[in-house]
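hey
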């Protein structure tokens, strides 16, 4: 039997690389999905390619409390509730040392990557409690367990959601709701293209190219390559499904071995 048969998932960042891969895999495994993103054109394309019988979308900004409350309600109205919440929307911010990092960019990264996740939990938990349980998966990062020079806002945000996840796991266990993070290393999506380009611009050195930057990132990964979005989606599916019924409060790496070495 399909592993997510009869389940419904609410996925933020559903128009992006990883969110979209999760939506495709979850629906292929029998789930119905409601995708949330601020990019309507991209959402429409994903829903069309999956099919409206198993996918719907909601345009919302995860940083705005009333929009979060409203997307949760719309998903419940459309699919009658949900069993899985993937708090996955995120932005990378800039590559810049802390002393030069613009305050407004720092605040925006925290708003999307931290407040956006917390708001999601605030409105999703009561819906799942009423349903009798569920699984919440938060997309953190290898930047959630170690420092990354030049990426103070992103690194701060991805550490923060691990603390948030652990607290939510403790609060939610009596309700039958499991909460975990997935922590990817560099994955082939728009976000890595953006980071590579920012690294090149920050270096201001013609020897530093996008290709060489990618090689340098890959060289720090024992498997010597970026992951692809489907490889992250498969871990998300495990955590979303009943296969992981005894897993809560966990930090799950999907990083080609990046975190295995000494710091
Ligand atoms: P992506 O840019 O393809 O997708 C992110 C999505 O989030 C986009 O569709 C974007 O429109 C959406 N989004 C951003 N701000 C939003 C807002 N305020 N409201 C609603 N939607 C918003 O990048 P991705 O690689 O798919 O990233 C997904 C998640 O994975 C992010 O949390 C990211 O930090 C995390 N992650 C990515 C990598 C990587 O290398 N790509 C590695 C580790 C963790």
């Amino acid at each position: 039997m399909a592993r997510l048969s009869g389940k419904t998932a609410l996925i933020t960042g559903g128009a992006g690389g990883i969110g979209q891969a999760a939506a495709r895999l979850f629906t292929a495994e029998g789930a119905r999905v409601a995708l949330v993103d601020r990019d309507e054109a991209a959402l429409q394309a994903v829903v069309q390619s999956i099919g409206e019988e198993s996918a719907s979308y909601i345009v919302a900004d995860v940083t705005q409390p009333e929009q979060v409350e409203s997307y949760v309600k719309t998903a419940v109205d459309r699919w009658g509730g949900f069993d899985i919440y993937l708090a996955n929307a995120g932005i990378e911010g800039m590559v810049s040392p802390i002393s030069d990092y613009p305050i407004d960019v720092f605040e925006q990264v925290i708003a999307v990557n931290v407040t956006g996740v917390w708001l999601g939990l605030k409105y999703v938990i009561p819906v799942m409690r009423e349903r009798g349980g569920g699984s919440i998966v938060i997309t953190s990062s290898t930047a959630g367990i170690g420092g990354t020079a030049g990426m103070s806002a992103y690194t701060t945000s991805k550490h923060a959601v691990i603390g948030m996840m652990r607290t939510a796991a403790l609060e939610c266990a009596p309700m039958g709701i499991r909460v975990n993070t997935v922590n990817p290393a560099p994955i082939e999506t728009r976000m890595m293209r953006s980071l590579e380009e920012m690294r090149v611009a920050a270096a201001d050195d013609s020897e530093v190219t996008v290709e060489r930057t990618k090689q340098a990132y890959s060289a720090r990964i024992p498997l010597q390559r970026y992951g692809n979005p489907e490889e992250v989606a498969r871990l998300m599916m495990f955590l979303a499904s009943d296969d992981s019924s005894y897993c809560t409060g966990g930090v799950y790496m999907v990083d080609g071995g990046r975190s295995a070495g000494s710091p």
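The chain has one domain: 8-186+228-258. The beta strands are 8-12, 32-37, 55-59, 84-87, 134-139, 177-184, 251-254.
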